[in-house]
Amino acid sequence: MRLVLLGPPGSGKGTQATRLKVELGVPHISTGDMLRAAVAAGTPTGLKAKAVMDAGQLVSDDILLAMLEERLSQDDVKGGFILDGYPRNLAQADALDHLLAKIGQPLDAVVKLDVPNEAIIARCEIRFAAEHRKDDDPAVVRDRLKVYAEQTAPVAEFFARRGKLQVVDGVGELNEVTARIKRALSAESAAANG
């Protein structure tokens, strides 16, 4: 299974990807985690990304695509992957399409978690209080939601035009949301094989 999870920051993509990776038997690839690891390691890419992330902005497409291409070349993704946090704009969606065609791993499905902004802000406030991640600061989250609406929301339509998009209600108990995603993936798989 080659899956992209879309949704606003704080919609639960990472949580759901962590739960699904075991069931699907594929790695969870989070561009946010890749970036945070580069920041923690103090790599040149990480230092560039840190300043951008701390300001609540998005890291450049070139940096993300290079990191992603390297990750997708590793052996553990031969059987598929769950991609979380990428693509974030139409240029990245197009670049991902080309990259996956080049490596012979086209997407099976794209799931968009639908969560209202108010619920996202409340979730991030809780996480900010617990983890003190600067990108969870409520003011930063509001800015990130604006950027999401302008740049990332159109990515869903990009995948819808390719017949890959499933929209799932991302509000509710974790098990409920996971079950909804699994039903959407089953429907996508049945449609692709039917």
Question: Can you tell me about this structure?
Answer:
The protein is α/β, with parallel strands linked by helices and 194 residues long. The chain has helices spanning 13-24, 31-41, 44-54, 61-72, 90-102, 117-131, 138-161, 174-193, and strands spanning 2-6, 28-30, 81-84, 109-114, 165-169. 61% of the residues lie in helices and 12% in strands. It has a five-stranded parallel β-sheet, with helices on both faces.
Largest sheet: 5 strands, parallel
- Strand count: 5
Our Rg estimate from Cα atoms comes to 16 Å
Instruction: Let me know the average pLDDT.
Output: 90
> How many structural domains can be distinguished in the coordinates?
1
Distance between the termini: 17 Å
CATH topology: Rossmann fold
Question: What is the CATH architecture descriptor?
Answer: 3-Layer(aba) Sandwich
